[in-house]
UniProtKB/TrEMBL annotation:
Keywords: Oxidoreductase. This is 3-hydroxybutyrate dehydrogenase. It is an enzyme of class 1 (oxidoreductase). Its EC number is 1.1.1.30. It comes from the Bacteria. The keyword Transmembrane helix does not apply.
Amino acid sequence: MTTLNGKTALVTGSTSGIGLGIALSLAKAGANLILNGFGDASAVIAQVQAFGVKVGHHPADVSDPAQIADMIAYAEREFGGVDILVNNAGIQHVAAVEDFPVERWDAIIAINLSSVFHSTRLSLPGMKAKGWGRIVNIASVHGQVGSVGKAAYVAAKHGVIGLTKVVGLETATSNVTCNAICPGWVLTPLVQKQIDDRAAAGVDPQQAQHDLLAEKQPSLEFVTPPQLGELVLFLCSEAGSQVRGAAWNIDGGWLAQ
């Protein structure tokens, strides 16, 4: 098992869903955690504290570079900096390009792509000074293929993979690595809404879930947050030290088609 005792991980968008699953995996491995997300985080903090690690929460809106800078300053002040950065925060909106609201495009690019740049540029100096660091960007299969109605999300995730490659190259001779994970369907609130929308149109909920998976994911099973957490742990381990600038698919066979 990967041991991360003494390391500090910052996971954006970690008060629910994928981010929480990754945070719990990191805490189980001994990492101190800085959670990020809106709302009352007390219940989530208690979940992470159960592993006996130090936990903090910063409510930064990652669409705002100034709030990201404040979050990194908080990490340096309270935890001695960020050793593991997991850029996970994301939002979605579905509409045809000609109907896509400009404000939704701007928000998706800011949260899903620009925040990755800002968190990375602000964390890298501390990682380099310590001589060790791991940056894991939660991209998507939509960072490598398109789907109708998801112009902003697909554009942002393609950008995340491109940024990952550049940072991976720029840190290639250091003990800092940067990689992206590309999940397929994960049963998050965003995906559940798509199932609910199909059910509202008269489709049995179980059938709606099956049909959603069958369109893209040959395994007919969702990827789970704990599975993503375990992959993050691998990338943080010594065994993952020469994985650099990669876009790692975990998608039930989606991109094998």
